[in-house]
Every structure is written in structure tokens, then in C-alpha cells.
Write the C-alpha cells for this entry.
Amino acid sequence: MGLYDALGVGASGLSAQRARVEALTENIANSETTRTPQGGPYRRRRVVFESAPVGPAFGAVLSQVRSRVDGGALEGVRVARLEFETAEPEMRFEPDHPDADEAGYVAYPGFNPIEDMVDLTASVRSYQANLAVIDAVRQMINATIDVAR
């Protein structure tokens, strides 16, 4: 794997974690939403990742030559799909609420936003780790250029 290939892997990780952060922040923001345009309470979104070949590397574009030690395809990560959880809503007795049913119960999203906060912390740390990889590769490229002078 060349230095430019490592940039592609790090960039794919950044993109995937960004999508995860967006879904988690939406979940946290809507943890008390009782009415959505689709009807009913908000349903928690979950991002599912999969491995994916990294697109053309920067070095391949510049030199049109790629060499690999193992000859295998270089893989990063991407968002495979967004899933909506089908958890049962939490029913709370609030007869004065505008979304209350005939019995006075309101359907709230059936998930714990604290779990999403913990996942958000892990996702931000993963994002930071990918940034560190890209920065380290950038420093190596700069050092290589300095040696070549």
C-alpha cells in the first residue's frame, strides 16, 4: 500500500463516520418526537457499514502506476444502508398532550438516547483517529518530498 492509498482509506473512514454522527445526532434530537410526517413517533436510525474498494488513489491518477505487495484490492469502508428500528413505542399517560389517543396515552420513540450519546462519543473518536491517519500520511509525504530535494 502506498501513501496515497492510505489517504483513500482514511478518507473513506471519515466519510462513513460523518454519516454515523449525522444519524446519531438526529436520533438524540428527536428522542422525544411524538409526531413525524410519516405518522407516529420518531424511529431511531442506524447506519450499517460495509467494506468497499477504495476509489482511484491520488497516486494512481498522477502516475497511472500502482504496485501492491499482496496484489489484492485495497478496501476502505462505506455506508451500506440506513436502517430504521422497529422498536415498540413507549406509551406514556398524558391526556392533555395534543398527540394523545382516546385513552390519553402518547406514543414516544422507544429507544434510549443515552445509548446514542455513547455511540456518538465512539464515532467522534473514530473520526479523530481517521484524521490522525491522514495527518500522519501527509507528514510522511512531506518528509519524502524533503528527502528528494
User: Anything to note?
Assistant: The longest strand covers residues 75-84. Helices lie at 3-29, 58-63, 113-148. Confidence is low (pLDDT under 50) at residues 61-70. Strands lie at 45-53, 75-84, 90-93, 105-108.
